[in-house]
Amino acid sequence: MPPSERAIVQEFVSAALREIAEATRRAIAPRALLLVGSYARAEGGVVIRDGAPRPYNDLDLVAVVDRVERGTHEALKAIAHHFEPRAGVSVDLWPIEIHRLSPPPRTLFWLDVSLGGVKLVDGDATVLSRVALRPRDVPLEEAGRLLANRAVGLALSQLDDEGARSEMDSAVRDDDRTRHLHKAVLACGDALLLAAGAYVGSVEGRREALAKLAGAPHVTEELVGAYAAACRFRARPATPKDRGWEGATLRTIARAHLAFEALRVGAPEDPEAYARTKLALFPVLPDVRPLGRLGSALRARAAGVPLLPWVGHPRERLARVAVALAYGGARTRPVAEQLLGTRGADARIIRDRLLVLSHRGG
């Protein structure tokens, strides 16, 4: 990619961020506004729209505040919604109270911030010194949750192909499926790097680290190659013309995902057995413990997710459903429908129920 294209996109993003910062300052006067993710590291993707280089990845921003007041979330959502047409990509803007940064939540998101995936857009630069995590601080359950969420994306793209969104143009469906496959590949590689203590901040650094692990348990040549292809896609998205790569890539993802879960919690490596396992897949995360599990299950029920046949945290159900739909094909579809409470339903209903569950269990 010519350096000029990336420079053009970075300046485009910077101009949009200046406007977002001004609007945020007027609305809630945060201590600091932080850009996180790809464009904070100058690794964001580039696409050509209307003949000009434009951003491909979402803009993720965090407003650091002393206290989240009533109306803060709504104000930030309104700002994000207002600037999405200007940015040309999804804009996510949410608050965090400053006391929660010392230390930050032990998640992959905040690990990436700690490893340099952050840029001060506006405000007090000293807030960045509060964010300090090391790869070993982040539990492997975080990687398990990421893999489950990426499997949800794969399942949704497959349901779209079945007609859940028949009005969607086939080229758009192809692009959507390609994006989900590449994101899932990156998640598989990142999970194994975290387990190996080799996780680093930049995408290119992770690609190099994974290549060095080739031949180690579960780090196959196919995964290393697919990870490199996914890194190229992040930089300059393009749907491959050879459709044969999809099936091979999905099989690589399925093997890596289930092998990681076997390593992490001893889960079965067969999609159907995984969907039916009684093992606790997320025993450590705070909101999956008994009190948090009950509250989350009740909130999911209020949103339309049935309590039966799975009584517990919706994340446990989501992980099983996602694996069954994404990797098992027709063989595991019935167990996914049973867990969703959608037996005999068409793809649109299954997709809608899966979306509701992912919002509660992701």
Average pLDDT, rounded to a whole number, is 89
Number of discrete domains? 2
- The portion of residues assigned to helices is 55-70%
Shape label: globular
Quickly list its features.
single chain, 362 residues, alpha+beta, Beta Polymerase, domain 2, four-stranded mixed β-sheet, two-stranded antiparallel ribbon, 6 strands, 57% helix
Please explain how this structure is put together:
With 362 residues, the protein is of the alpha+beta class. Helix content is 57%, strand content 9%. The chain has a 4-stranded mixed sheet. Strands 2-3 form a two-stranded antiparallel ribbon. Helix 5 (170-196) packs across helix 7 (221-235) and helix 6 packs antiparallel against helix 7 (221-235). The longest helix is centred in the middle third of the chain and has 27 residues, at 170-196. It starts with a helix and ends with a helix.
